[in-house]
Amino acid sequence: MLESLIHSNSQNILTSHSMLILQIQTEALKAIHDYLYEQNLIQLMPVMLSPITDPLSHETSDAKITYFGQELQLTKSMIFHKQLAIASSNTKGIYIMSPNIRLEKYDKRDSGRHLIEFSQVDIELREVNSLKFMELIEGLIISVINRVKEKCKIGLENLGVSLRIPARPFKIYSSEELKKKLGENFEKESSLREIDPFWITDYYREFYDKEDPKRPGHYLNYDLIYPEGFNEALSGGERDFEYKILLRKIKERHQNPEIFEFYLDEAKEGKLVASAGGGLGIERLVRFLTKIQHIRDVSPFSKVPGEHYQI
């Protein structure tokens, strides 16, 4: 395994090895911006403090401050902001280079892919279904790989990496079929078996992920999974936007509707619209492009769950 990019104070933060990784990250980010610009998406600036943030479907510790008597959450994702923004505009879609704070539990320390502070390109498309969003992301991933292969030949060679251009469309599996075939750890097992990125659909998750009206108890959501054991790249889904459905699902998940009062009021007044979106982790993308085993070695100042940090 590469030594960590976080060294003692007497050493350089950026080594020649880490500069190769950061050059690849720079080209990947340029490819993302160029591709989304060509797709006519509008870029929003990130929100880092908000009265509400993503409740997530797994447990994390709260990250919040009190400011002039109001409790503000550090952003876990901009899901609510994206829905409100896309509903109040006539644009095709929006995206944000969004820094997120998720205080993950200690058991995520050795996963190789979790950070408590990370960035994602958070995307939302207006009035599209899952397949349309997945098409956009497939084009994005291929554009990134093509650019990195073209612009970072020496860096990839020095890292011992050969990148494969995946074929479209990416394979699609349901979580139900993979769970029956591979067991509870189906994401990891399927990632190890594939050679190209692929989709897994239909997870029981957050209340805003759209329930399939044709199949109650199933969901129109998806994860993009990297091959070769690199696991989840993106998580997203179509969005429920009708008040009664959102309220029911919040209560089913034993959450307090008062927390989401402003968002629910917008839904009650019919101000939300159909959309689909997701968040693509930047550090996870760079980890996949460079074939680095642990995400701590992808960028300077990385913060892995449960570890102590120097600066």
UniProtKB/TrEMBL annotation:
Aminoacyl-transfer RNA synthetases class-II family profile domain boundaries: 94-300
SUPFAM superfamilies cross-referenced by the UniProt entry: Class II aaRS and biotin synthetases
Biological process according to GO: asparaginyl-tRNA aminoacylation
Superkingdom to which the source organism belongs: Archaea
Keywords: Aminoacyl-tRNA synthetase, ATP-binding, Ligase, Nucleotide-binding, Protein biosynthesis
GO molecular function, one term: ATP binding
Protein name, as recorded: Asparagine synthetase A
Species this protein is from: Promethearchaeum syntrophicum
